[in-house]
């Protein structure tokens, strides 16, 4: 909108009265923890008598907003306030953090909303995603939708005077001449249509369409900023709002200290190699003049802009007031990229380095030379990292080269083009400043002495590099020194366990009772086949697994009295009823959610209800647990087995719009329709079970990452190694079930890759890892110890890949080791022929046909003697198990297990002997000897139970 306006206010010097404008004002800032935001907050606190500053801060990596604010105020940028102002403490108290979620329509809760609407007078919207490689709909969500939601909130602010929307000078960089107005020429039907269109695309399609839609624009960032400007003009033009367009923002000139910077984006990041003495040539036109602005000048311009918006609102008398735009760029005192190289190098102290840097660091108009240099640097970095790896150290040279190259490519567009512009509004503001305000707010870019500025530019970059290196070293030292005192963590704690009557659950409960001084263990147990939860608990503790407690503890009865069975129905929204509901919410401190359906052949709806919906109900319930310290969600290492390498992060790549959309799709379908649709929905994942586990992880990340929760991914869980009984197992599923024919000394070859390496872990090792992970989740949540690594991405919530690869065995070795534990010499010799993993599917089918034939003959004889047939059923079950686990025998996965390795190194001395879970240290020959014995015991136990069931029938016949 560009209607004629009449400015009825005075235009003399001092018209703005900026000091009076901010006197006793309440200011709202988004992006206050960022580069520009920190300088803005510091300037407001130091130079103006504001009443209060609200910072809208998002919870990040499980860090509370108050903690993020505290860390920000402790930074060196606020040292000047601490050292020069006697009332520094009172000034810092003016800054208030507000927990914000821009993903919701209501970005703050009702209490904070009422407070903001009643108090806020000035708004600075600085927050934005500045990633140039963002997919377009994500960039729009972060830079457009968040602004819409903020300004919708601002529409309800009773005392609102001014809003400054921080855009970018390059929001219309597809034009050569940029005016101080909004260009409403968004292609493809506008931003709303683009958002609707992108919703139906998969990630790969979104990447391709992003490049097409942005067109002549260099990236999604500037395109989304243009969209935000159009939305403001269209929807919020009646508000006292203005658009502030800064150019490339670089380190400070004077305030709060010369050369201050805390991030290495854009032009600053490209200068890091100069400071480090590295050789780096960038492709570009050395005669192009860039638009750059020191961050303190930029913030001063923003502060003046807010006042000018208010002045215009009060004095301009148009029919329709246009949204004012401020092109914060100056062209009278500029320099070229070629001159910029020299200016940056002039700040290097050492004369030799200063001389050599002019050769090492250049902007070159021929692309071939930077590419050749990049190839040489990459080769050098790879060699350096390889040498470091020989000494057991992690190299970061390749990562540094890749980061600088990515940044250089991202801003190449701006090194090849120049723009002209109108900056009348900014120039007019300069004329309206009083002398005092002009001293307080110096933002005239035409008066910057760039030679003087760059004397502190390189120094500021070097100082920040030193700060980052110091923080990295301090973090690593604290990580090494910080020990997990697991025994202390569980002392007098109340633990909640789901799936406590299952294979993992029994070992977990036994370990907690035997090795830790827990106060109470709540077990959520379902009624099963008419057996009550209390009866199922009694059956569980009568299992031989608890004989160690009965034989080693002085008072085992007291230990078992700590177990409390609670009847549960996961199919109901209120799955726990009073009085247990209140007990759980008031007492529970640690939660292990190990309950899951592990049947690969279960119906789609059933397994999703159990593994996803049931989990969602549990965690919704735990939101209100007042003493909650840690939750360990037991997933599976194979939840993302469609990948060959698995990181310790949640992969949110569920097809068909994500789990919520899948749930809506399948809800009206019949069971047969759901099962027919299942293969298309789960895609490359092998079965419903792994898909359901993946959905649960994504659901946790999206809905419950604010809770103290961690995702534990065990691999194929096998019988125990040492505790509580060597070789103990009570189920014959998965890899354990496939070993039964070995003990029966039958001929059966399985189809698979003999050299593939399975990820295996004994159940007692898994439980020790889970118990330790709970303590780590608590430490990370309470002390804000989310692993902020400088070398890799850290996921939220923390993920623990319980996978080890330094001491692997192949599937064929697995089969051979089980056979080596047979009691007879002949059995051991023949087992390698009877049981094999073969690459030829036909050989596997022939052996199964033979087993079916033998089983059929055996069942015929049983029928003749009027006995119950079971052999064909057993072979069918084994065949089904072999087919279901085929994918795991044919493939090998690699994984990051940094969190698990960190747990191993963080155990205190008192816990090291108590919690053994380093699978890399297992003696597999010794382990499989126990494995075979344990499996033999469970088969004998099941046979005795079967015989005992038959005896009453025989007596009845007599």
UniProtKB/TrEMBL annotation:
- Could you say which enzyme class this protein belongs to? oxidoreductase
| SUPFAM superfamilies from the UniProt entry | NAD(P)-binding Rossmann-fold domains (SSF51735)
Tell me which EC number(s) this protein carries: 1.2.1.84
* Catalytically driven reaction(s): a long-chain fatty acyl-CoA + 2 NADPH + 2 H(+) = a long-chain primary fatty alcohol + 2 NADP(+) + CoA
Give the matching InterPro entries. FAR, FAR_C, FAR_NAD-bd, NAD(P)-bd_dom_sf
Q: Does the keyword Lipid metabolism apply?
A: yes
Give the family this protein belongs to, as stated in its UniProt record. Belongs to the fatty acyl-CoA reductase family.
Name the chain's protein. Answer: Fatty acyl-CoA reductase
Organism per entry: Anopheles minimus
């Amino acid at each position: 909108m560009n209607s004629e306006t009449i400015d009825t206010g005075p235009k003399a010097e001092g018209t703005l009265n900026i000091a009076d404008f901010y006197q006793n004002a309440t200011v709202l800032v988004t992006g206050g923890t960022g580069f520009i935001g920190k300088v803005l907050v510091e300037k407001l606190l130091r130079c103006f008598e504001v009443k209060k500053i609200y910072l809208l801060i998002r919870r990040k990596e499980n860090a509370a907003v108050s903690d993020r604010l505290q860390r920000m105020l402790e930074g060196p940028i606020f040292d000047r306030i601490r050292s020069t102002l006697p009332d520094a403490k009172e000034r810092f108290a003016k800054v208030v953090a507000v927990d914000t979620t821009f993903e919701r329509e209501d970005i703050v809760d009702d209490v904070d909303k009422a407070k903001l609407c009643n108090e806020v007078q000035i708004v600075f919207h600085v927050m934005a995603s500045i990633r140039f490689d963002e997919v377009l709909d994500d960039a729009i969500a972060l830079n457009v939708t968040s602004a819409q939601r903020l300004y919708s909130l601002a529409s309800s602010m009773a005392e609102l005077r001014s809003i400054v929307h921080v855009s970018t000078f390059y929001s219309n960089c597809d034009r050569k001449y940029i005016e101080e107005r909004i260009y409403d020429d968004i292609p493809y039907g506008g931003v709303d249509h683009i958002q609707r269109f992108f919703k139906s695309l998969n990630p790969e399609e979104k990447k391709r369409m992003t490049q097409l839609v942005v067109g002549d624009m260099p990236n999604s960032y500037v395109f989304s900023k243009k969209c935000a400007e159009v939305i403001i003009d269209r929807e919020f033009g009646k508000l006292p709002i203005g658009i502030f367009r800064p150019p490339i923002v670089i380190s400070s000139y004077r305030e709060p200290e010369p050369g201050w910077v805390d991030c290495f984006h854009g032009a600053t990041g490209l200068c890091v190699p100069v400071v480090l003495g590295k050789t780096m040539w960038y492709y570009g036109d050395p005669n192009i003049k860039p638009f750059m602005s020191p961050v303190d000048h930029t913030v001063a311009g923003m502060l003046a802009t807010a006042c000018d918006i208010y002045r215009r609102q009060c004095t301009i008398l148009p029919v329709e007031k246009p949204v004012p735009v401020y092109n914060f760029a100056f062209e009278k005192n500029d320099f070229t990229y070629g001159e910029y190289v020299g200016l940056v190098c002039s700040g290097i102290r050492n004369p030799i380095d200063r001389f050599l840097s002019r050769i090492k660091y250049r902007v070159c108009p021929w692309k071939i030379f930077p590419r050749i240099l990049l190839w040489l640097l990459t080769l050098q970095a790879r060699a350096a990292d390889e040498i470091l790896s020989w000494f057991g150290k992690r190299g970061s040279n390749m990562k540094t080269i890749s980061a600088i190259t990515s940044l250089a490519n991202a801003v190449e567009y701006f090194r090849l083009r120049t723009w002209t512009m109108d900056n009348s509004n900014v120039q007019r503001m300069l004329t309206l400043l009083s002398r005092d305000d002009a001293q307080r707010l110096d933002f005239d870019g035409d008066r910057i002495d760039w030679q003087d500025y760059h004397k502190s530019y390189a120094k500021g970059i070097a100082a920040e590099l030193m700060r980052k290196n110091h923080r990295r070293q301090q973090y690593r030292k604290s990580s090494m020194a910080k020990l997990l005192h697991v025994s202390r963590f569980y002392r007098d704690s109340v633990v909640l366990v789901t799936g406590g009557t299952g294979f993992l659950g029994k070992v977990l409960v036994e370990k907690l009772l035997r090795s830790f001084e827990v106060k109470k263990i709540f077990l959520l147990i379902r009624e099963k086949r008419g057996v009550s939860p209390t009866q199922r608990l009694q059956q569980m503790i009568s299992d031989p697994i608890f004989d160690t407690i009965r034989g080693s503890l002085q008072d085992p009865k007291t230990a078992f009295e700590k177990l409390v069975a609670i009847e549960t129905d996961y199919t109901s929204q209120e799955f726990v009823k009073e009085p247990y509901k209140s007990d759980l919410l008031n007492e529970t401190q640690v939660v292990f959610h190990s309950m899951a359906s592990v049947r690969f052949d279960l119906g789609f709806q059933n397994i999703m209800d159990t593994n996803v919906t049931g989990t969602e109900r549990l965690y919704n319930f735990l939101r209100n647990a007042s003493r909650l310290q840690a939750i360990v969600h037991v997933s599976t290492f194979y939840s993302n087995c469609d990948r060959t390498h698995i990181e310790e992060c949640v992969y949110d790549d569920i097809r068909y719009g994500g789990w919520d959309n899948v749930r809506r799709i399948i809800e009206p379908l019949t069971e047969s329709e759901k099962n027919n649709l299942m293969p298309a929905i789960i895609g490359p994942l092998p079965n419903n079970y792994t898909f359901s586990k993946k959905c649960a992880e994504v659901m946790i990340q999206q809905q419950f990452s604010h809770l103290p929760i961690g995702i534990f991914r065990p691999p194929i869980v096998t019988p125990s190694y040492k505790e509580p009984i060597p070789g103990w197992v009570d189920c014959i599923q998965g890899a354990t079930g496939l070993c039964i024919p070995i003990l029966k000394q039958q001929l059966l070859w399985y189809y698979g890759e003999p050299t593939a390496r399975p990820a295996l872990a004994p159940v007692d090792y898994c439980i020790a890892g889970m118990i330790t992970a709970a303590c780590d989740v608590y430490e990370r949540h309470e002390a804000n110890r989310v692993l902020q690594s400088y070398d890799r991405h850290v996921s939220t919530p923390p993920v623990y890949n319980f996978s080890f690869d330094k001491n692997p065995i192949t599937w064929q070795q697995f089969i051979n080791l089980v056979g080596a534990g047979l009691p007879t010499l002949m059995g051991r010799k023949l087992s390698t022929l009877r049981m094999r993993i073969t690459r030829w599917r036909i050989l596997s089918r022939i052996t199964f046909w033979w087993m079916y034939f033998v089983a059929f003959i055996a069942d015929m004889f049983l029928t003749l003697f009027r006995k119950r047939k079971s052999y064909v059923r057993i072979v069918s079950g084994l065949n089904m198990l072999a087919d279901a686990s085929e994918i795991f025998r044919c493939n090998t996965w690699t994984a990051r297990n940094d969190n698990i390795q960190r747990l191993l190194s963080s155990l205190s001395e008192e816990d090291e002997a108590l919690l053994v879970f380093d699978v890399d240290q297992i003696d597999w020959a010794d382990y499989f000897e126990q494995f075979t014995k344990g499996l033999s015991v469970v088969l004998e136990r099941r046979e005795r139970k079967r015989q005992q069931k038959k005896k009453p029938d025989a007596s009845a016949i007599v």
